[in-house]
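Section 5.1 Outputs to date
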Amino acid sequence: MGDKRPIIVIKRNNPHAAHHGGAWKVAYADFVTAMMALFIVLWLMNSSKQLQLAVGGYFKDPTGNSKMVGTNQTGSGENITLTKDTMSQLKQALTDAIRQVASLDKFKDQIEMTVTAEGLRIEMMETATGTFFDSGSPVPNGSGKDLLVTLAQELGKLPNNISIEGHTDSKPFSGRTDYGNWELSTDRANSARRLMQQSGLREDQVSQVRGFADQRLRKTADPLDPSNRRISVIVQYLAKDDPNQPKPPGPASEGSAGNHQDQPNEPPKP
């Protein structure tokens, strides 16, 4: 019995046992997340400008309280508060929207957008054969209707007021003695106003309809140039973040000083 020794059990920790735990799952999850982020970035780089602005706007203002969070995925100017600092965003959004209308692609050289002191000026310029209006007609043709409807659908989502101008070249209007360039320019502007209000503009959004005949030529050196015949749609500025911004005026004011108005004469009120 004295020679019997106790049995001693020695337990050794396996240094490789940690590899069979859950730490690898965390590392793998990080890897998958990083890959997903990479693919999202690559997708955004190849997406439309409007979608990039929308995503960028979300990260700048996740709660959506800001008024300037980019544009929506349809390419519209929705959610843009148009000030002098943001008017270029609307210009890009409208350009993209027009490009999506197949019938308008061939007229891209006849559509010009310029940021001016008044706002974003959109010019619909004619050619010698007529682009948006047939010669002498106050009613827009098929291409003119497509463009005006597209603009109305986009601009109707904005808080900004719109003014519409009609212009002609210096060639005298022929065929009638009681109708001239003053009447034609005003009638075309008013026809554009009517169609745009039927297609997306709010009733109280148009602040002015003006006809200038040939008094504001685009090419003064060539008064007969076809591009002098045009419709101008002006998106007027809003004061940036101004809580006291006046509400848009009521029904559209048609015509201006020296312009012809197509409203019936009313007797003076007592």
